Amino acid sequence: MNNPLVLDGKTLAKQIEADLKTRVEKIKAAAQVTPILATILVGDDPASVTYVKMKGNACQRVGIDSLKIELPGNATTEAVIAKITELNRNERVHGILLQHPVPGHIDEQSCFNTIAIDKDVDGVNTHSFGNMAMKLESFKSATPLAILTVLKHYRIEIEGKEVVVVGRSPILGKPAAMMLLNENATVTICHSKTRNLAAIIQRADILIGAVGKPRFIQGDWLREGVVLVDAGYNPGNVGDIDLENSVPKCSAYTPVPGGIGPMTISSLIRQTVEAAERKYRLN
Ligand code: NAP
């Protein structure tokens, strides 16, 4: 009988947090400062409110401060950019997170591109993406970094494997594909205009679900022994892969909840700690 490996992100995130706590203590001792992650929330979308709260709680657990900025839902692009510019100049702030998605009237990418790259701990600035793609030093988009961290921790071989990424958003599918390419996978990216999706997914040794549609990817599209990474998180605590009928075919999978979600927060906090370490030349 199939006994797939559970790629447990929740436990791994706890282990990483314990290490980060020690690193934060070293920063405090050496530089006499407490690192600060500034979070900007525009509007009051309930899911975004929850995510920002969870990120603030994670800061607290590792000993860093969070500076919570709330802007009204009718804030303009200029107002968001002005706030980010102010945070870029604030010497006490080490990382800046603009919670995605912002209301539709705001030019999100212009806001992301305003974040100074040495404070871009969520890896959303176009320059951070470019540096990552060229294998230069950069902060990485948090969810793709979470995916790579989980795969490496559980020693899932990436080099030479057929990886199919379903989704090409700037914060998830596209950077995940690039990071996996940099690990020498053979990567196919699928999106809403892809034809014969099931046939492409059938080729995958590793499948990344980043679609934003509950239980969209079906078990009968999968090759036996596939490694399933479900980055999706939809209402009702379900991912983008129909895990119920997919798990019997796979060799390993990330659960939802408890897989990529907690590791995304851990990646953000890790990069905030790294930003502070770089500033004080402690790494
Ligand atoms: P998004 O911006 O809506 O992008 C969805 C992607 O899926 C798009 O590239 C879209 O293609 C593609 N797509 C839509 N319908 C498709 C179809 N029928 N066949 C193939 N591809 C299709 O979403 P996102 O921000 O990347 O998020 C994706 C999922 O990840 C969501 O469930 C979200 O909640 C989750 N997420 C989780 C975390 C975390 O912390 N765990 C963080 C971020 C996101 P087009 O480009 O052609 O439109």
Which helices and strands occur, and which strands form pairs?
Blueprint: E1 5-6, H1 9-31, E2 36-42, H2 46-62, E3 65-71, H3 77-89, E4 95-98, H4 108-114, H5 126-133, H6 142-153, E5 162-166, H7 173-182, E6 186-190, H8 197-201, E7 206-209, E8 227-230, H9 243-246, E9 252-253, H10 260-279
Parallel strand pairs: 1-9, 2-3, 2-4, 5-6, 5-7, 7-8, 8-9
The structure holds NADP nicotinamide-adenine-dinucleotide phosphate (NAP).
Bound small molecules, by name, code or SMILES, are: NADP nicotinamide-adenine-dinucleotide phosphate
Overall residue-averaged pLDDT value: 97
Strand percentage: 5-15%
Most strands sheet = 6 strands, parallel
Task: Identify the CATH architecture of the largest domain.
Answer: 3-Layer(aba) Sandwich
Subunit arrangement of the protein: single chain
Number of helices: 10
